[in-house]
Each structure stands twice: as structure tokens, then as C-alpha cells.
# Entry
Amino acid sequence: MTSEIKSLGDVLAEVLGEQLVSVKHHLGEVTIVVRAADVHQVMSTLHDAEGLCFTQLTDLCGVDYLDYGDGAWDGKRFAVVYQLLSVPLNQRLRVRVFAEDDSFPVLSSVVSVWSGANWFEREAFDLFGIIFTGHPDLRRILTDYGFVGSPFRKDFPLSGHVEMRYDPEQMRVVYQPVTVEPREVTPRIIREEKFGCN
# Structure
């Protein structure tokens, strides 16, 4: 472990104190876990504290831990992972926050800390069903407004019973029964002895 990473872990432990659930150093990166109740305050601290200065949010994504590790996972199901960058200190940090309720995952929005979190949070809401309280405009961003469900959840069905299309006569999206027969696609395997040889 490099001294730079070790010192970042020490600074985080000193600044965040009891708000820090865990710190992990792996492959030259620092990952911290914080509680859902503390997420907004922790993010504000990471952004503003003199020894940290994580002024850039480079990514935010939802994670579904259902059946993670072949079912060995026994923690909370949904998490949001934030990738932060401190340009003045040339350091990166990953922050993981688990939603407390698996059936209705809710976290505080960090749009007031990083305005760039707006579309990232909308994407996590749309694809995973994670609610961000305090978000200025939380609505779907990638799927149709009438879409039912969260397509990136691991329990979302792979094929549905309805399909949608735009109807020019009604001038809107309509749903209708699926017209494509389900089939299993098996890749063709070539087993010729001299295939590909000159």
C-alpha cells in the first residue's frame, strides 16, 4: 500500500469519524462505506474539507447485490457507488452507500453538492428504482415514461409479454402483446480440423 493511499485513509478516518463504516485499500484504490442516513453530510464534507477537496463527481451508479457471489451475499441489496476526484490533491475515492430498505431503496440526493449528479441519479432511479430524496427533477431518463419496472434489477424478467411502439395515428406510444416468438439462440460451433489454418 502506498503512503499516499494510507494517508488518504487516515485523513478520511480523522475527518469523518463515526460516519465512516469501513475503509478498504485494494489495487491502489480507496473505497469507503458510509450509512444512508449520513450520505449527504459525508458528501458535503468530502467536497469542502481542506484535506480532501473532492470537487468532482466522475460517476454515480446503482448496484443490485441480489445473488451476488452465487448467493453468498447477506448484506443489503441495493447500493449506490460514487466515484470522486480531487484535482488539487490528485486523488480518487470510491464511496459506497447501501439503501436501508431492500423493497423501497431510498437515499438522499447529492445534486446540491455536485450538480452533475442530476442525470446519474435519474439513471439509477430509472434502471434500479432507487429513489433520491431532494432531487430537483427525479423522472425516467432512458426508458419510456409509461415503462413499468426497473430493467437493471436482477429479478427483472428477461422477456416480457407486451411490447411498445409509436403509433402515428394516435400520436403516442402504445403497448400491445408481443409478436415475436421466443427462441433460444445457440452459437454455431465449427469443429473442422483445419479450419482457419493455411
Remarks:
- The longest strand covers residues 56-64.
